[in-house]
Design goal:
six-stranded antiparallel barrel; 17 strands
């Protein structure tokens, strides 16, 4: 009997020593369910006061990395539009036009300045090279007609002068004839000057002034075209385009582009597992209703405690290193976080705490 007791005692001691000095270690895994998000997400929105906003959100860090809004000039009228070419697209390229704003005042200014520039270019052509042959011929014809009118008026005034001396016409009639003679003389001088100007070109000072004005108009047009370009809304990166309806806080979501080149998974973990978590831990992600598995690495552990289903929890973010085909933002997956290898004693403690700690 004593021998049996000693045997049992020896076996117990051996088991205890075996457990204490067991060379094998076991991986402690935390199981939870997470949701897949794009690392970067661009949101096109409209505030309830009518402003158009662009926001780039870094879901990995949980922060807004970029924000921009379209400012409107007082009194201007803007039309917002979504590019119809993207309506049937799932993916867009970087720099592709998503939508934009049309400014009535801006378009009017550009059109007006372009018209002024064309006028100045036409004048420069006239003054630099002489007018077109057709216009010069018209000036030559006008000069011939002016000479003929002057010759007629010259004969008439000579006759009227003789009649006036003989008192055969009144002073008023003579004055009218004299005025017509002087007018024909002035018209002849103008026709000669016009033909000379069109044939020989303008002074260099005037040509320089026109060139400078054209350059000034071109700079103004370029500045306005840049403003017009800035009113176009382009995709900041290539990705999946989603046209969401509804609102988020004070912004109505018009469209958003998600970066499909990089995904993360955000998983709520119960607070009792907090001490077992660490950056760099590897995760195995299992999609529901499929055998495909993904790999991820813990990149962020939130320090703000949340209440989820009545229990305290924290959010853990893991960057997906290897993803399954057909994975889209919003899908849920089982998250298995590998928290390291432990001896059987330590593993048993962790398992006991996980099961019974509240």
């Amino acid at each position: 009997m004593k021998k049996k007791k000693l045997l049992y005692f020896g076996i117990a001691i051996a088991v205890v020593l075996g457990i204490l000095y067991c060379p094998f270690k076991f991986t402690y895994i935390v199981y939870a369910t997470g949701k897949v998000f794009p690392t970067y997400e661009w949101v096109l929105g409209r505030t309830y006061d009518g402003r158009i906003t662009e926001t780039i959100k870094n879901n990995q860090l949980g922060v807004i990395s970029s924000y921009a809004g379209k400012e409107f000039q007082r009194g201007d009228v803007f039309d917002f539009y979504i590019n119809p070419e993207i309506n049937n697209k799932q993916f867009v390229e970087k720099g592709e036009i998503i939508g934009g704003l049309n400014s009535t005042e801006l378009l009017r200014q550009i059109s007006q300045l372009k018209a002024e520039r064309e006028v100045e270019k036409a004048l420069l052509k006239v003054y630099s090279t002489g007018q077109k042959i057709q216009t010069i011929k018209e000036a030559e014809t006008n000069l011939i007609l002016a000479k003929e009118r002057f010759a007629i008026q010259d004969k008439l005034i000579a006759r009227q002068e003789e009649l006036f001396k003989d008192s055969l016409i009144s002073p008023q009639q003579y004055d009218i004839a004299k005025n017509e003679y002087e007018l024909s003389k002035i018209n002849l001088a103008l026709a000669e000057a016009q033909l000379k100007t069109l044939s020989t070109g303008e002074k260099p000072e005037q040509i320089k002034f026109i060139v400078e004005k054209i350059e000034s108009l071109s700079k103004q047009i370029e500045s306005l075209e840049s403003r017009k370009e800035a009113l176009q809304i382009k995709a900041p990166f290539a990705g999946l385009i989603q046209r969401k309806k509804g609102g988020l806080s004070s912004v109505e979501v018009l469209a958003n582009v998600v970066d499909t080149s990089s995904y993360i998974i955000v998983t709520p973990i119960r607070i009792k597992e907090f001490k077992n978590l660490a950056l760099g831990q590897k995760c195995v992600l299992k999609l529901f209703n499929t055998d495909c598995e993904m790999e991820a690495t813990v990149c962020h552990i939130d320090n703000a405690i949340q209440i989820i289903n009545g229990k305290q929890a924290i959010y853990v973010t893991a960057k997906i290193d290897k993803k399954c085909p057909g994975v889209y933002p919003g899908i849920f997956a089982q998250t298995n976080i590998h928290c390291g290898k432990y001896t059987i004693i330590d593993y048993s403690k962790l398992l006991f705490q996980s099961l019974f700690y509240r």
